[in-house]
Amino acid sequence: MFITKSLFVEYINSPKLAWYHVNDKKTHKKIQEHVHGGMDWAAIGQSVEDMVRKLYAGKTIADIDTKNLGFKARHKTYHTLSSKALDQNADVIYQAGFATDKLFVKTDFLVKNELWTYDLMEVKSKNSIRSNNKDHTLVDELVTDVSFQKYVLEKTLGAKFSWNCYLVYLNKEFRKHGEINPQDIILQELVTDDLMTDDAIERILATVESDLSLSLADFNKKFPYDGSDYFTYFGEEPPKKSIRNITGIVQDKKKELYEAKKILIDDITDEDILGILSNKDGGESRSSKFMNLRRQGETTIDKEEIKKRLATLKFPLFFYDYETVSFPIPTFEWLGPRGQTVVQYSVHKIDEDLSTGTPTLIITHKDCIVNPGETSNKRIIDQLVTDLEHGNGTYIVRNKSFECGRNKESSLLYPEHAEALEKINANTFDLMTLFSDMLYFDRRFLWSSSIKKVLPVLTDISYDTLEVGNGGDAMKLLYEIQQGHLTGAELEQSVINLLTYCEQDTRAMVRIWEVIKEKIA
DNA sequence: TATGAACGCGCATTGAGCGA
DNA sequence: TCGCTCAATGCGCGTTCATA
Q1: A432 CB closer than 7 A to any strand B atom
Q2: What region holds the DUF2779 domain (predicted)?
Protein backbone atom coordinates (compact mmCIF):
# COMPACT_ATOMS: atom_id res chain seq x y z
CA MET A 1 0.00 0.00 0.00
CA PHE A 2 1.41 3.40 -1.01
CA ILE A 3 0.44 6.16 1.38
CA THR A 4 -0.03 9.28 -0.72
CA LYS A 5 -0.43 12.80 0.54
CA SER A 6 -4.15 12.84 -0.03
CA LEU A 7 -4.58 9.53 1.78
CA PHE A 8 -2.58 10.81 4.73
CA VAL A 9 -4.57 14.04 4.95
CA GLU A 10 -7.83 12.11 4.65
CA TYR A 11 -6.80 9.66 7.35
CA ILE A 12 -6.23 12.50 9.80
CA ASN A 13 -9.47 14.28 8.88
CA SER A 14 -11.63 11.21 8.72
CA PRO A 15 -10.15 7.72 8.99
CA LYS A 16 -13.31 6.26 7.54
CA LEU A 17 -12.99 8.28 4.35
CA ALA A 18 -9.41 7.02 4.00
CA TRP A 19 -10.63 3.45 4.50
CA TYR A 20 -12.99 3.80 1.55
CA HIS A 21 -10.21 5.42 -0.47
CA VAL A 22 -8.16 2.24 -0.15
CA ASN A 23 -10.82 -0.46 -0.02
CA ASP A 24 -13.82 0.79 -1.98
CA LYS A 25 -12.98 3.41 -4.62
CA LYS A 26 -16.54 3.68 -5.91
CA THR A 27 -17.97 4.59 -2.54
CA HIS A 28 -15.07 6.92 -1.86
CA LYS A 29 -15.87 8.85 -5.02
CA LYS A 30 -19.53 9.02 -4.12
CA ILE A 31 -18.82 10.38 -0.65
CA GLN A 32 -16.43 12.99 -2.04
CA GLU A 33 -19.00 14.16 -4.55
CA HIS A 34 -21.53 14.43 -1.75
CA VAL A 35 -19.16 16.39 0.48
CA HIS A 36 -18.08 18.78 -2.29
CA GLY A 37 -21.59 19.30 -3.59
CA GLY A 38 -20.86 18.07 -7.09
CA MET A 39 -19.80 21.51 -8.29
CA ASP A 40 -16.57 21.58 -10.24
CA TRP A 41 -14.97 24.80 -9.01
CA ALA A 42 -11.46 24.02 -10.17
CA ALA A 43 -12.36 23.54 -13.81
CA ILE A 44 -13.46 27.10 -14.56
CA GLY A 45 -11.38 30.20 -14.90
CA GLN A 46 -7.64 30.56 -15.11
CA SER A 47 -5.95 28.39 -12.55
CA VAL A 48 -3.75 29.75 -9.83
CA GLU A 49 -1.00 27.36 -10.89
CA ASP A 50 -0.86 29.00 -14.32
CA MET A 51 -0.41 32.34 -12.58
CA VAL A 52 2.37 30.92 -10.41
CA ARG A 53 4.13 29.65 -13.54
CA LYS A 54 4.12 33.21 -14.84
CA LEU A 55 5.77 34.22 -11.60
CA TYR A 56 8.74 32.08 -12.62
CA ALA A 57 8.98 33.55 -16.13
CA GLY A 58 12.63 33.79 -17.10
CA LYS A 59 13.56 30.64 -15.21
CA THR A 60 13.75 27.19 -16.78
CA ILE A 61 10.72 25.16 -15.79
CA ALA A 62 11.00 21.39 -16.07
CA ASP A 63 7.71 19.57 -16.61
CA ILE A 64 7.64 15.90 -15.80
CA ASP A 65 6.36 13.88 -18.76
CA THR A 66 3.82 11.63 -17.12
CA LYS A 67 2.06 10.45 -20.29
CA ASN A 68 3.43 6.90 -20.34
CA LEU A 69 3.70 6.13 -16.67
CA GLY A 70 1.79 2.87 -16.78
CA PHE A 71 -0.15 1.85 -13.72
CA LYS A 72 1.76 -0.77 -11.81
CA ALA A 73 5.08 0.95 -11.17
CA ARG A 74 3.83 4.48 -11.63
CA HIS A 75 5.10 5.82 -8.31
CA LYS A 76 8.61 4.46 -8.87
CA THR A 77 8.71 5.61 -12.50
CA TYR A 78 7.47 9.04 -11.52
CA HIS A 79 10.22 9.20 -8.93
CA THR A 80 12.87 8.28 -11.50
CA LEU A 81 11.68 10.92 -13.98
CA SER A 82 11.56 13.60 -11.27
CA SER A 83 15.04 12.71 -10.01
CA LYS A 84 16.36 13.20 -13.53
CA ALA A 85 14.99 16.75 -13.61
CA LEU A 86 16.69 17.39 -10.27
CA ASP A 87 20.02 16.09 -11.56
CA GLN A 88 19.76 18.45 -14.52
CA ASN A 89 19.47 21.35 -12.04
CA ALA A 90 16.34 22.90 -13.55
CA ASP A 91 15.44 26.23 -11.88
CA VAL A 92 11.88 25.12 -11.28
CA ILE A 93 10.32 21.66 -11.41
CA TYR A 94 6.59 21.47 -11.89
CA GLN A 95 4.64 18.58 -10.42
CA ALA A 96 7.53 16.37 -9.46
CA GLY A 97 6.73 13.09 -7.71
CA PHE A 98 8.86 11.24 -5.19
CA ALA A 99 8.46 7.83 -3.62
CA THR A 100 9.95 5.85 -0.77
CA ASP A 101 9.03 2.18 -0.29
CA LYS A 102 5.75 3.18 1.27
CA LEU A 103 5.14 6.87 0.71
CA PHE A 104 4.45 8.96 -2.35
CA VAL A 105 4.11 12.69 -2.79
CA LYS A 106 3.48 14.93 -5.78
CA THR A 107 4.72 18.47 -5.24
CA ASP A 108 3.37 21.58 -6.97
CA PHE A 109 6.64 23.42 -7.54
CA LEU A 110 10.21 22.83 -6.43
CA VAL A 111 12.23 26.02 -6.80
CA LYS A 112 16.01 26.27 -6.71
CA ASN A 113 17.33 28.87 -4.26
CA GLU A 114 20.67 30.70 -4.18
CA LEU A 115 22.28 27.82 -2.28
CA TRP A 116 21.29 25.51 -5.14
CA THR A 117 18.98 23.48 -3.00
CA TYR A 118 15.24 23.22 -3.61
CA ASP A 119 12.39 24.91 -1.74
CA LEU A 120 8.95 23.34 -1.66
CA MET A 121 6.09 25.48 -2.99
CA GLU A 122 2.58 24.24 -2.29
CA VAL A 123 -0.02 26.21 -4.27
CA LYS A 124 -3.45 26.80 -2.77
CA SER A 125 -6.33 28.52 -4.49
CA LYS A 126 -7.21 30.30 -1.27
CA ASN A 127 -7.40 33.87 0.02
CA SER A 128 -5.95 33.01 3.41
CA ILE A 129 -4.06 30.15 4.96
CA ARG A 130 -4.43 31.05 8.62
CA SER A 131 -7.36 30.85 11.00
CA ASN A 132 -9.01 34.06 11.99
CA ASN A 133 -8.17 33.63 15.68
CA LYS A 134 -5.77 35.34 18.07
CA ASP A 135 -2.72 33.25 17.23
CA HIS A 136 -3.44 33.13 13.48
CA THR A 137 -2.62 29.44 13.41
CA LEU A 138 -2.07 27.74 10.08
CA VAL A 139 -5.23 25.91 8.96
CA ASP A 140 -5.07 22.29 10.20
CA GLU A 141 -5.50 20.72 6.80
CA LEU A 142 -2.60 22.74 5.38
CA VAL A 143 -0.39 21.72 8.30
CA THR A 144 -0.90 18.02 7.60
CA ASP A 145 -0.64 18.53 3.85
CA VAL A 146 2.71 20.34 3.88
CA SER A 147 4.13 18.35 6.82
CA PHE A 148 3.68 15.13 4.89
CA GLN A 149 5.37 16.59 1.82
CA LYS A 150 8.29 17.84 3.87
CA TYR A 151 8.69 14.44 5.51
CA VAL A 152 8.80 12.58 2.18
CA LEU A 153 11.14 15.11 0.60
CA GLU A 154 13.57 14.78 3.52
CA LYS A 155 13.68 11.04 2.88
CA THR A 156 13.98 11.24 -0.90
CA LEU A 157 15.82 14.44 -1.88
CA GLY A 158 18.46 14.34 0.85
CA ALA A 159 20.82 17.31 0.69
CA LYS A 160 19.06 18.75 -2.38
CA PHE A 161 16.10 19.70 -0.20
CA SER A 162 16.44 23.01 1.65
CA TRP A 163 13.74 22.12 4.22
CA ASN A 164 12.07 25.40 3.34
CA CYS A 165 8.35 24.92 2.81
CA TYR A 166 6.25 27.72 1.37
CA LEU A 167 2.55 28.07 0.91
CA VAL A 168 1.73 29.96 -2.27
CA TYR A 169 -1.72 31.54 -2.21
CA LEU A 170 -3.81 34.51 -3.25
CA ASN A 171 -3.42 38.06 -1.99
CA LYS A 172 -6.90 39.04 -0.93
CA GLU A 173 -5.98 42.73 -0.93
CA PHE A 174 -5.24 42.60 -4.66
CA ARG A 175 -7.58 44.46 -7.04
CA LYS A 176 -7.48 44.00 -10.78
CA HIS A 177 -6.50 46.98 -12.94
CA GLY A 178 -5.93 45.75 -16.48
CA GLU A 179 -3.39 43.00 -17.09
CA ILE A 180 -2.61 41.07 -13.89
CA ASN A 181 0.97 41.07 -12.70
CA PRO A 182 1.59 37.71 -10.99
CA GLN A 183 3.79 39.41 -8.35
CA ASP A 184 0.78 41.39 -7.16
CA ILE A 185 -1.76 38.61 -6.81
CA ILE A 186 0.42 35.73 -5.57
CA LEU A 187 1.78 35.57 -2.02
CA GLN A 188 4.46 33.18 -0.77
CA GLU A 189 4.83 32.47 2.92
CA LEU A 190 7.44 30.35 4.65
CA VAL A 191 5.57 27.96 6.94
CA THR A 192 8.29 25.50 7.98
CA ASP A 193 7.94 26.51 11.64
CA ASP A 194 4.22 25.75 11.65
CA LEU A 195 4.63 22.12 10.60
CA MET A 196 4.36 18.84 12.50
CA THR A 197 7.50 17.17 13.78
CA ASP A 198 8.80 14.05 12.06
CA ASP A 199 8.03 12.17 15.28
CA ALA A 200 4.39 13.17 15.10
CA ILE A 201 4.18 12.08 11.46
CA GLU A 202 5.82 8.75 12.21
CA ARG A 203 3.42 8.09 15.06
CA ILE A 204 0.53 8.51 12.64
CA LEU A 205 2.17 6.55 9.85
CA ALA A 206 2.63 3.65 12.26
CA THR A 207 -1.13 3.11 12.41
CA VAL A 208 -2.27 4.09 8.92
CA GLU A 209 -1.48 0.88 7.10
CA SER A 210 -2.79 -1.50 9.74
CA ASP A 211 -5.98 0.52 10.26
CA LEU A 212 -6.74 0.73 6.57
CA SER A 213 -6.13 -3.01 6.13
CA LEU A 214 -8.84 -3.91 8.64
CA SER A 215 -12.08 -5.46 7.46
CA LEU A 216 -14.95 -3.01 7.45
CA ALA A 217 -16.47 -4.67 10.51
CA ASP A 218 -13.24 -4.43 12.51
CA PHE A 219 -12.64 -0.91 11.26
CA ASN A 220 -16.06 0.19 12.43
CA LYS A 221 -15.34 -1.34 15.83
CA LYS A 222 -12.19 0.74 16.14
CA PHE A 223 -13.80 3.94 14.75
CA PRO A 224 -17.49 3.67 15.69
CA TYR A 225 -18.17 7.31 14.95
CA ASP A 226 -15.82 9.72 13.30
CA GLY A 227 -17.55 13.02 13.03
CA SER A 228 -19.80 12.71 10.04
CA ASP A 229 -22.49 10.09 10.27
CA TYR A 230 -22.78 10.21 6.51
CA PHE A 231 -20.12 7.50 6.60
CA THR A 232 -22.09 5.55 9.12
CA TYR A 233 -24.31 4.57 6.26
CA PHE A 234 -21.32 3.14 4.44
CA GLY A 235 -21.47 5.55 1.62
CA GLU A 236 -25.14 5.04 1.00
CA GLU A 237 -27.63 7.88 1.19
CA PRO A 238 -28.69 7.91 4.85
CA PRO A 239 -32.31 7.19 5.68
CA LYS A 240 -34.56 10.22 5.25
CA LYS A 241 -35.38 10.32 8.92
CA SER A 242 -31.80 10.20 10.17
CA ILE A 243 -30.99 12.32 13.23
CA ARG A 244 -28.42 14.05 11.01
CA ASN A 245 -31.33 15.92 9.48
CA ILE A 246 -32.46 17.60 12.67
CA THR A 247 -32.14 21.31 11.92
CA GLY A 248 -29.18 22.97 13.62
CA ILE A 249 -27.97 19.84 15.38
CA VAL A 250 -24.26 20.08 16.20
CA GLN A 251 -21.65 17.33 15.85
CA ASP A 252 -21.30 16.68 19.59
CA LYS A 253 -25.04 16.12 20.02
CA LYS A 254 -25.22 13.90 16.96
CA LYS A 255 -22.40 11.85 18.41
CA GLU A 256 -24.11 11.63 21.78
CA LEU A 257 -27.33 10.43 20.20
CA TYR A 258 -25.51 8.05 17.91
CA GLU A 259 -23.67 6.49 20.83
CA ALA A 260 -26.98 6.03 22.61
CA LYS A 261 -28.01 4.03 19.49
CA LYS A 262 -30.46 6.69 18.37
CA ILE A 263 -30.06 6.73 14.60
CA LEU A 264 -33.49 7.86 13.45
CA ILE A 265 -35.55 10.90 14.37
CA ASP A 266 -38.26 8.55 15.61
CA ASP A 267 -35.87 7.06 18.17
CA ILE A 268 -35.77 10.40 19.97
CA THR A 269 -37.74 10.63 23.20
CA ASP A 270 -39.14 13.55 25.17
CA GLU A 271 -36.22 13.25 27.57
CA ASP A 272 -33.79 13.62 24.65
CA ILE A 273 -35.53 16.78 23.48
CA LEU A 274 -35.43 18.28 26.98
CA GLY A 275 -31.93 16.97 27.64
CA ILE A 276 -29.42 16.43 24.85
CA LEU A 277 -31.14 18.62 22.27
CA SER A 278 -31.86 21.59 24.51
CA ASN A 279 -29.46 24.37 25.43
CA LYS A 280 -27.03 23.97 28.29
CA ASP A 281 -29.41 25.92 30.52
CA GLY A 282 -32.32 23.72 29.47
CA GLY A 283 -33.91 26.32 27.17
CA GLU A 284 -35.22 25.66 23.67
CA SER A 285 -32.53 25.34 21.02
CA ARG A 286 -32.98 25.28 17.27
CA SER A 287 -32.86 21.51 17.25
CA SER A 288 -35.32 21.05 20.13
CA LYS A 289 -37.66 23.57 18.49
CA PHE A 290 -37.46 21.59 15.26
CA MET A 291 -38.32 18.35 17.08
CA ASN A 292 -41.21 19.91 18.96
CA LEU A 293 -42.70 21.31 15.75
CA ARG A 294 -42.16 18.03 13.95
CA ARG A 295 -44.18 16.27 16.63
CA GLN A 296 -47.08 18.69 16.32
CA GLY A 297 -47.83 17.49 12.80
CA GLU A 298 -46.86 17.93 9.17
CA THR A 299 -47.40 21.68 9.05
CA THR A 300 -47.29 24.33 11.76
CA ILE A 301 -47.75 28.00 10.93
CA ASP A 302 -47.24 30.82 13.41
CA LYS A 303 -49.81 33.03 11.69
CA GLU A 304 -49.63 35.93 14.13
CA GLU A 305 -45.86 36.34 13.92
CA ILE A 306 -45.84 36.00 10.13
CA LYS A 307 -48.63 38.58 9.85
CA LYS A 308 -46.64 40.92 12.04
CA ARG A 309 -43.55 40.57 9.90
CA LEU A 310 -45.32 40.86 6.55
CA ALA A 311 -47.13 43.96 7.79
CA THR A 312 -43.80 45.81 7.73
CA LEU A 313 -43.61 45.50 3.93
CA LYS A 314 -44.63 48.70 2.14
CA PHE A 315 -45.49 48.90 -1.57
CA PRO A 316 -43.91 48.94 -4.05
CA LEU A 317 -42.27 45.58 -3.40
CA PHE A 318 -39.20 44.56 -5.35
CA PHE A 319 -38.40 40.85 -5.43
CA TYR A 320 -34.88 40.61 -6.75
CA ASP A 321 -32.10 38.08 -7.20
CA TYR A 322 -28.48 38.18 -8.39
CA GLU A 323 -26.40 35.81 -10.42
CA THR A 324 -22.70 36.30 -9.87
CA VAL A 325 -19.39 34.92 -11.05
CA SER A 326 -16.40 34.40 -8.82
CA PHE A 327 -13.00 33.02 -9.74
CA PRO A 328 -9.66 32.70 -7.97
CA ILE A 329 -8.09 34.95 -10.60
CA PRO A 330 -10.53 37.84 -11.15
CA THR A 331 -11.86 38.49 -14.65
CA PHE A 332 -13.53 41.83 -13.87
CA GLU A 333 -11.86 45.16 -13.26
CA TRP A 334 -11.51 46.37 -9.63
CA LEU A 335 -12.25 42.89 -8.29
CA GLY A 336 -10.06 40.85 -5.96
CA PRO A 337 -9.38 37.09 -5.91
CA ARG A 338 -12.64 35.16 -5.57
CA GLY A 339 -14.52 38.44 -5.52
CA GLN A 340 -18.16 38.03 -6.44
CA THR A 341 -19.32 40.09 -9.40
CA VAL A 342 -22.99 40.70 -10.12
CA VAL A 343 -23.38 39.83 -13.81
CA GLN A 344 -27.13 39.31 -13.98
CA TYR A 345 -30.26 40.20 -12.07
CA SER A 346 -33.99 39.79 -12.21
CA VAL A 347 -36.57 42.04 -10.52
CA HIS A 348 -40.30 41.54 -10.09
CA LYS A 349 -41.95 44.75 -8.96
CA ILE A 350 -45.36 44.61 -7.31
CA ASP A 351 -47.31 47.80 -6.86
CA GLU A 352 -50.76 48.38 -5.49
CA ASP A 353 -53.23 50.16 -7.72
CA LEU A 354 -55.84 51.93 -5.62
CA SER A 355 -57.34 54.03 -8.42
CA THR A 356 -60.33 51.79 -9.10
CA GLY A 357 -61.52 51.59 -5.49
CA THR A 358 -60.67 47.89 -5.05
CA PRO A 359 -56.91 47.47 -4.63
CA THR A 360 -55.32 45.44 -7.44
CA LEU A 361 -51.74 44.35 -7.79
CA ILE A 362 -49.65 45.27 -10.82
CA ILE A 363 -46.67 43.02 -11.47
CA THR A 364 -43.84 44.06 -13.77
CA HIS A 365 -40.56 42.34 -14.56
CA LYS A 366 -37.12 43.67 -15.49
CA ASP A 367 -33.74 42.05 -15.96
CA CYS A 368 -30.20 42.59 -17.20
CA ILE A 369 -27.27 40.37 -18.16
CA VAL A 370 -23.55 40.74 -18.92
CA ASN A 371 -22.43 41.30 -22.53
CA PRO A 372 -19.76 39.23 -24.26
CA GLY A 373 -16.33 40.69 -23.54
CA GLU A 374 -17.55 43.08 -20.83
CA THR A 375 -14.88 43.56 -18.16
CA SER A 376 -16.75 45.77 -15.71
CA ASN A 377 -20.26 45.50 -14.31
CA LYS A 378 -20.84 49.24 -14.08
CA ARG A 379 -23.52 49.15 -16.78
CA ILE A 380 -25.38 46.42 -14.87
CA ILE A 381 -25.25 48.21 -11.49
CA ASP A 382 -26.31 51.52 -13.12
CA GLN A 383 -29.32 49.78 -14.63
CA LEU A 384 -30.02 47.92 -11.37
CA VAL A 385 -30.23 51.06 -9.27
CA THR A 386 -32.68 52.51 -11.79
CA ASP A 387 -34.80 49.35 -11.88
CA LEU A 388 -34.84 49.19 -8.06
CA GLU A 389 -35.96 52.85 -8.09
CA HIS A 390 -33.08 54.15 -5.97
CA GLY A 391 -34.14 52.50 -2.73
CA ASN A 392 -37.66 53.87 -2.51
CA GLY A 393 -39.46 50.63 -1.82
CA THR A 394 -39.24 47.37 0.08
CA TYR A 395 -36.78 44.79 -1.18
CA ILE A 396 -37.41 41.09 -0.84
CA VAL A 397 -34.64 38.54 -1.26
CA ARG A 398 -33.85 35.05 -0.12
CA ASN A 399 -30.83 34.92 2.19
CA LYS A 400 -30.17 38.62 2.47
CA SER A 401 -26.55 38.25 3.55
CA PHE A 402 -25.77 37.44 -0.06
CA GLU A 403 -27.56 40.27 -1.88
CA CYS A 404 -26.79 42.86 0.80
CA GLY A 405 -23.14 41.80 0.78
CA ARG A 406 -22.95 42.35 -2.98
CA ASN A 407 -24.63 45.75 -2.57
CA LYS A 408 -22.05 46.83 0.00
CA GLU A 409 -19.28 45.92 -2.45
CA SER A 410 -21.02 47.73 -5.30
CA SER A 411 -21.36 50.86 -3.20
CA LEU A 412 -17.58 50.86 -2.66
CA LEU A 413 -16.94 50.37 -6.38
CA TYR A 414 -19.50 52.96 -7.48
CA PRO A 415 -19.79 55.66 -4.79
CA GLU A 416 -22.36 57.49 -6.91
CA HIS A 417 -24.80 54.67 -6.04
CA ALA A 418 -23.78 54.29 -2.39
CA GLU A 419 -26.77 56.17 -1.01
CA ALA A 420 -29.32 54.20 -3.06
CA LEU A 421 -27.67 50.87 -2.28
CA GLU A 422 -27.58 51.64 1.45
CA LYS A 423 -31.28 52.47 1.34
CA ILE A 424 -31.97 49.22 -0.49
CA ASN A 425 -30.10 47.24 2.17
CA ALA A 426 -31.84 49.06 4.99
CA ASN A 427 -35.25 48.24 3.49
CA THR A 428 -34.56 44.59 2.72
CA PHE A 429 -36.73 41.76 3.96
CA ASP A 430 -35.37 38.22 3.93
CA LEU A 431 -38.08 35.80 2.82
CA MET A 432 -36.00 32.89 4.05
CA THR A 433 -36.30 33.94 7.71
CA LEU A 434 -39.96 32.86 7.77
CA PHE A 435 -38.66 29.33 7.25
CA SER A 436 -35.31 29.46 9.05
CA ASP A 437 -37.02 30.90 12.15
CA MET A 438 -39.46 28.00 11.75
CA LEU A 439 -42.50 30.30 11.73
CA TYR A 440 -43.71 28.33 8.74
CA PHE A 441 -42.81 24.73 9.41
CA ASP A 442 -43.50 21.83 7.11
CA ARG A 443 -41.96 18.38 7.36
CA ARG A 444 -41.86 18.21 3.58
CA PHE A 445 -39.32 21.06 3.46
CA LEU A 446 -36.89 18.32 4.47
CA TRP A 447 -35.29 20.24 7.36
CA SER A 448 -34.16 23.06 5.11
CA SER A 449 -35.16 26.69 4.81
CA SER A 450 -33.69 27.02 1.32
CA ILE A 451 -36.25 28.40 -1.11
CA LYS A 452 -35.40 25.59 -3.53
CA LYS A 453 -36.69 23.07 -0.94
CA VAL A 454 -39.69 25.17 0.08
CA LEU A 455 -40.82 25.87 -3.47
CA PRO A 456 -42.09 22.41 -4.56
CA VAL A 457 -44.15 22.10 -1.38
CA LEU A 458 -45.84 25.50 -1.62
CA THR A 459 -46.13 25.93 -5.41
CA ASP A 460 -46.16 23.96 -8.65
CA ILE A 461 -43.09 25.77 -10.01
CA SER A 462 -40.34 23.35 -11.07
CA TYR A 463 -36.75 23.76 -12.20
CA ASP A 464 -36.70 20.33 -13.85
CA THR A 465 -37.65 21.52 -17.32
CA LEU A 466 -35.18 24.43 -17.44
CA GLU A 467 -31.97 24.23 -19.47
CA VAL A 468 -30.14 26.07 -16.68
CA GLY A 469 -31.46 24.70 -13.40
CA ASN A 470 -28.95 25.70 -10.70
CA GLY A 471 -26.49 28.40 -9.68
CA GLY A 472 -23.43 26.38 -10.69
CA ASP A 473 -24.57 25.87 -14.29
CA ALA A 474 -25.47 29.54 -14.44
CA MET A 475 -22.03 30.62 -13.24
CA LYS A 476 -20.23 28.49 -15.82
CA LEU A 477 -22.36 29.81 -18.66
CA LEU A 478 -22.03 33.42 -17.51
CA TYR A 479 -18.25 32.99 -17.47
CA GLU A 480 -18.33 31.64 -21.04
CA ILE A 481 -20.39 34.62 -22.18
CA GLN A 482 -18.28 37.22 -20.41
CA GLN A 483 -15.07 35.70 -21.79
CA GLY A 484 -16.53 35.91 -25.30
CA HIS A 485 -16.31 32.15 -25.84
CA LEU A 486 -19.84 31.88 -27.21
CA THR A 487 -21.13 33.34 -30.48
CA GLY A 488 -24.14 33.27 -32.77
CA ALA A 489 -27.04 30.96 -32.03
CA GLU A 490 -25.25 29.34 -29.10
CA LEU A 491 -24.76 32.72 -27.43
CA GLU A 492 -28.35 33.72 -28.12
CA GLN A 493 -29.76 30.51 -26.67
CA SER A 494 -27.51 30.69 -23.58
CA VAL A 495 -28.67 34.21 -22.83
CA ILE A 496 -32.31 33.12 -23.15
CA ASN A 497 -31.72 30.15 -20.83
CA LEU A 498 -30.04 32.31 -18.22
CA LEU A 499 -32.71 34.99 -18.32
CA THR A 500 -35.40 32.32 -17.98
CA TYR A 501 -33.65 30.79 -14.99
CA CYS A 502 -33.14 34.05 -13.13
CA GLU A 503 -36.66 35.26 -13.86
CA GLN A 504 -38.02 32.02 -12.47
CA ASP A 505 -36.11 32.60 -9.23
CA THR A 506 -37.81 35.90 -8.53
CA ARG A 507 -41.19 34.70 -9.80
CA ALA A 508 -40.89 31.82 -7.34
CA MET A 509 -40.33 34.30 -4.50
CA VAL A 510 -43.44 36.22 -5.55
CA ARG A 511 -45.46 32.98 -5.57
CA ILE A 512 -44.21 32.02 -2.12
CA TRP A 513 -45.18 35.45 -0.80
CA GLU A 514 -48.64 35.07 -2.34
CA VAL A 515 -49.14 31.55 -0.97
CA ILE A 516 -48.08 32.57 2.52
CA LYS A 517 -50.46 35.52 2.45
CA GLU A 518 -53.32 33.15 1.54
CA LYS A 519 -52.34 30.72 4.30
CA ILE A 520 -52.32 33.33 7.05
CA ALA A 521 -55.42 35.17 5.86
C1' DT B 1 -10.25 37.68 57.35
C1' DA B 2 -8.72 34.27 54.05
C1' DT B 3 -10.27 30.94 50.80
C1' DG B 4 -12.56 28.82 47.18
C1' DA B 5 -16.95 27.59 44.95
C1' DA B 6 -20.56 29.69 42.29
C1' DC B 7 -22.20 33.08 39.41
C1' DG B 8 -22.60 36.46 35.71
C1' DC B 9 -20.90 39.24 32.06
C1' DG B 10 -18.68 40.27 27.72
C1' DC B 11 -15.72 38.83 24.20
C1' DA B 12 -13.85 35.12 21.24
C1' DT B 13 -14.41 31.02 18.83
C1' DT B 14 -16.78 27.43 16.43
C1' DG B 15 -20.03 25.45 13.49
C1' DA B 16 -24.49 25.17 10.79
C1' DG B 17 -26.84 26.86 6.94
C1' DC B 18 -27.18 29.61 2.93
C1' DG B 19 -26.09 31.78 -1.56
C1' DA B 20 -23.29 31.96 -5.94
C1' DT C 1 -14.45 27.78 -2.16
C1' DC C 2 -15.69 32.00 0.41
C1' DG C 3 -18.05 35.01 3.23
C1' DC C 4 -21.93 36.24 5.79
C1' DT C 5 -25.19 35.68 9.87
C1' DC C 6 -26.79 33.63 13.81
C1' DA C 7 -26.78 30.54 17.73
C1' DA C 8 -24.31 28.05 21.01
C1' DT C 9 -20.60 27.49 23.75
C1' DG C 10 -16.04 28.38 25.80
C1' DC C 11 -12.99 31.34 28.30
C1' DG C 12 -11.24 34.86 31.34
C1' DC C 13 -12.06 37.57 35.06
C1' DG C 14 -14.10 40.04 38.62
C1' DT C 15 -17.75 39.82 42.17
C1' DT C 16 -20.43 37.59 45.63
C1' DC C 17 -21.23 34.56 49.19
C1' DA C 18 -20.71 30.67 52.42
C1' DT C 19 -17.62 28.82 55.53
C1' DA C 20 -13.69 27.81 58.53
Answers
A1: yes
A2: 318-445
Residue A142 DSSP code: H
| Those residues with Cβ within 8 angstroms of residue A197's Cβ, 6 or more apart along the chain or in another chain | none
**A127 CB neighbours strand B below 7 A:** no
Q: Is the CB of A405 under 7 A from strand C?
A: yes
Tell me the HSE value of A289 on the side-chain side, using a 13 A CA sphere.
Answer: 17
Note whether A286 and A311 are same-domain residues. no
- Please check whether strand C approaches the CB of A402 to within 7 Å: yes
Cis amide bond preceding A238, omega within 30? no
CA A421 to chain centre: 26
Instruction: Find the Å distance, CA of residue A283 to C1' of nucleotide C18.
Output: 29
A174, A72: one domain: yes
With a CB cutoff of 8 Å and minimum separation 6, the contacts of A77 are A69, A70
Are A196 and A285 contained in the same domain? no
Return positions of chain C under 7 A from a protein CB. Answer: 1-5, 7-10
pLDDT tens column, A207-261 = 999 999 999 889 888 877 655 545 544 445 556 677 777 888 877 788 777 777 7
Q: A410-428 pLDDT, tens per residue?
A: 998 899 999 999 999 989 9
A61: containing domain: 3-209
- Looking at the domain assignment, is residue A424 inside a domain? yes
In chain A, the number of structural domains is 3
